[in-house]
Amino acid sequence: MREKFIGNRKIFFMVLAIVIGICVVFFIRCLHDHISHDKCEVLWMFFMILPFLFMHYVDEKGIIYLGIPSEITAIILMWTPLKSHIGYCGKNMVLYYPIIYPCVVGFAYIIKLEINEYKQTLEELSNEKKMHQKEIHLRFKEQVLLYQEKERIVEEFYQKINHHNLIMEQLIKNGELEDVKAYLEEINNKMDYDEEFCKDCCNYAIKGILLLYSRKAKEEGCNLKVRAEVPKNLEINPTDVTYILANALENSINAAKERLRERITETDQLEELSEEYKQDNLVENIRVYISYDVEESELDIKIANGCSKNKKNLFTEDGIPISDRKDGGMGTITIRRVAEKYKGVANFNRYGETFLTRVQILC
């Protein structure tokens, strides 16, 4: 792997010392001998192309530093009687070198800046491409999980229906109608109304992602409190609204988990609290509010969750939270990018131990 000279100070100063040594030898030769035309031209041409030889390995300052010794040598030879020791062609080189060389260095400096800018742009595009590919991969996995979850729910539903049908069919054959009525009441009391919390949400994409992350939140000891009033049809790609909700809810669950761990640690230190009290109260709530303004054609998503009080959220200049997790921070960037796609806004704020995500989209 090629090392930049400016990055390795020892090598850089060795090169600089060689250049100074050449200038000193040339200066001494001028004091004692008459320098031939050929030697003079070769040496000055070497000085002239020096910045171009090393511009790929050193930064802009390094180009200037390498040219200082030869520039000083040329000025001394031009303004002292030593110029009589140089041939005619050499005199012209010495005379014009102090003028030409800064122009050459400036030209090399500009080229170096252009090269650096091009490399930086290329690196940014490469990083953006990697981020986009990773984002697509993550969203694809989320879609697969969503479909698998819905398929599992449907399968469980049919299994329960078949089981209940068989029992009621047997009871009816035996003429035990009162038992059928009692059994139906028992079923109603035991049924899992997972969809009850988002019954006013008519949009299938939003309802599906809410159901998926509601179950995921429960597995992590969190509780999703949802109030969603959304019409069936929205002028927004279902994939895009899934991107927003999936990323926002994923971040909320992760933050709520950290806060839950802190609360568990705190309550474990309080011996007077009963285990039953701890189990009943150690649940972290994530509140989700989704509404649609028909007049403004605006979808408004607000998600509030608890966050670690031992961590301070840092934000970029654009208001994007800085994640401390490996490969973190992509979710909020994706949310804002999708929001801006629909001429909307995405804001992230922290108020004490509560983190608020709000996305407003025109659709």
Strand order of the largest sheet: 1-2-3-5-4
Q: What assembly state would you assign to the polypeptide chains in this entry?
A: single chain
The tally of structural domains comes to: 2
Rounded Rg: 37 Å
| Shape annotation | rod-shaped
Structural class by sheet pairing and helices: alpha+beta
Written overview of the protein:
A hairpin with a 2-residue loop joins strand 4 and strand 5. The chain folds into two domains: 5-131, no CATH class; 194-362, Histidine kinase-like ATPase, C-terminal domain (Heat Shock Protein 90). The protein is rod-shaped and about 130 Å long. The protein is 63% helix and 12% strand. The chain is built from nine helices and five strands; from the N terminus they run ααααααβααββαββ. It has a five-stranded mixed sheet with strand order 1-2-3-5-4. Helix 2 (37-54) runs parallel beside helix 4 (88-173), helix 3 runs antiparallel to helix 4 and helix 6 packs parallel to helix 7 (238-268). The model is unreliable at 1-7 (pLDDT under 50). It has 363 residues and is α+β, with helices and mostly antiparallel strands.
